[in-house]
Structure formats: structure tokens, C-alpha cells
Amino acid sequence: MTCDTATSVTTVRVHVAFTPAEEAAAPVGIVVDVLRATSTIAQALASGYQRILCCGEIEQARALRASIPDSILGGERNAVRVEGFEAGASPREFLEPRAETLILSTTNGTQAILAAAARCDEVLLGSLLNLEAVVARARSLGGDVAILCAGFKGAFALDDAYCAGRIVALLDGERTDASIAAELVARSFPDALSGLNARTYGPPGLEEDIKWCARESVLEAVPRLERMVDGGAEIVRAL
Prior knowledge:
The chain is an alpha/beta fold. The chain has 8 helices and 11 strands. The chain has a 6-stranded mixed beta sheet. The protein has a 5-stranded parallel beta sheet with strand order 7-2-8-1-9, sandwiched between helices. The termini are far apart.
């Protein structure tokens, strides 16, 4: 009996989960919180931080800081730096390493990273800053891809949907309805800055960060989940 080789080809499937409530899973997960966690983590790793420990809760982050000497605390709640933390969550605060380890806790992004760690075999962090690099990494892994949008407090966030659509457009594979929708969202804006500025939430004062995060493919760093450390997700630069 002969085998029809045409039917043995495996097609990679690309899906987008627009909110954390959709518990999408795939061999490869790409977490997107373009404003600002995944952009900030990519920038920190590109600047020389050895690892980022992502925490869901502020007290957990403080406890890790107390146990790791060569570290600093960064993070925000509702886009405002957490009281007592050494840094906020702006990528522009991490242009030079101030320690080996950055311990980060944010309103949406770090929660999404922790959720992805439980659902996906390989977790990458995507942004516009590392757009081409993260797509190349996902392609090299060869499995189905779920792009997981952090959203805003559990709700749909247009900026993450835009970034997800830009990733979808560069990935080869069979698209779900959600990934087609994300790509259509991305195509509806003339440029990245317009796509990010279209969001309908957040306090004023983030204009410079938005401009920074709207730059495309300026970093080669691809953050990936290495392991869990005392409840925090350890993110390192993919080799």
C-alpha cells in the first residue's frame, strides 16, 4: 500500500486569544503586552539584564527582591510605579543594567506570562520592538502558535490586538477566525504609532513610552520562559 505524501504534511495553526479569559493553549505561546510589559522585558534583556523574574503580586516581588542580592524591583499598577520599587515599567528605564536580575510585577503583562507558562510548552514574549525576531523564533520551533494578548484588566485591548495582528501577518500557517480578525485590525491603521494610540484606556503621560514601543524590529532579543522560580516566571534571552 502506498501513502499519499500530500496528506501527511502538517499545517501549523495560528490563533489569537484577545483576552486572558480565553484559555488558549498551543506548543508555542507568544505573550503580547505591547504597552508595556513585553516591550520592557525585551528592552531590558537587550540592554544586558541576565534575567527577569515576572511576579503576579507585589508582595511576592518584594520577597524575591529580599532573597536575591543582585536585583532591582520594577513594576506598576494602573501605569503608576509601585511605591517602594526602584523602577517603574517603562522600557526607557532599562537602557542600562542596574543589576543582574530585574524583578517585575505589572497590572496585566506579568499575569499573562504566568498564565501562558501553564498552557504552552514554549513561551515567548512579543512586541513591536522585536517583531521580526520573535516571529523568526516561533517559525524555528515549528509548532502551532497561540498569540496571547494580556488585555487590560481582563478586557480586550486594542493595542495588543494590533500587535498580535502584526505578528500574524508575518507567520505562515492556517489562521483561525480570531487571527484573521487580528490581522484585519492591524491593517486598519496606517502605522504602528496610530495602532497603539487608538487604545481607549490608560492615564495621560505615557506618550513617550508609546512612541518608544511603536518602533518596529529594533531589537534582536527574544524573551523566553526558562523556568519557574519561587512562583515567578524566569524570563531569559533566547539563544
